[in-house]
Sequence to fold (270 residues):
Amino acid sequence: MPRTVDSGISDGSPAAAAIAINTALLGLFAVQHSVMARPWFKRWWTRFVPQPVERSTFVLLASLALLLLFWQWRTLPAAVWHVEWPAARMVVWTLFWAGWGTVLAATFMIDHFELFGLRQVFTAWRGTAEKETGFRATLLYRLVRHPLMVGFLVAFWAAPTMTAGHLLFAAGTTGYILVALQLEERDLVATLGDRYRVYQRSVPMLVPGLRPRQSCSVATVTPRRGLTRRSRSTR
Amino acid sequence: MTVEAVGSTMVVMTHRTAILGYGIVAYLLFLVSFC
Fold:
């Protein structure tokens, strides 16, 4: 299994074929991720699978889509940019790891175990009702509405050497993230109404400080049960 | 506790344990794929 976006299959096939295959792999992941996250799909899907494993099934299929992507990814080695100055390379690598650190940290600022379905199956195993988790606009979620995605974007673009394949991956995932966030927020607004609109007006989507914060406090936004879960699980 | 009650409890616990195992496997697969 390749370890990086630049160490995939290199079979000498034409660049157009490699781009088509890579795009299809990204598209498969995007479709799985977005369709399974929609409320209408969850309502239909949980007629066939137990409610407690709905999220785990999402995680399972997303992982399989990722594994397929990693396995079949075609390398496009042409360099788009290459940072040579060692200090600058270190800065870019620092950004790269900061991005992944942000991703990991953001999962714990909401609920890491609920995000990946573990809390749901554990609660089912104990036979207890799920507890109210509430809306947590804490730490990074007070700076931007989607710090998890900010972390991904930084990690994907912070490359001292940007190859054509890496660029395709970064551009494809960036495009998907921007579209998926619209879908997610549309669902959140439909469910939360003004509560989420207040959050949208108070906190920028991806770029800290891009939109001036208004007088209302994010901390006062306390959505109903389950709504927070949607905010962190849908894409 | 009757035999039926014991059997019913075992069925429920088996079902719940299967759900827990499924969730753990899904999470581990995610870790493997991502890391």
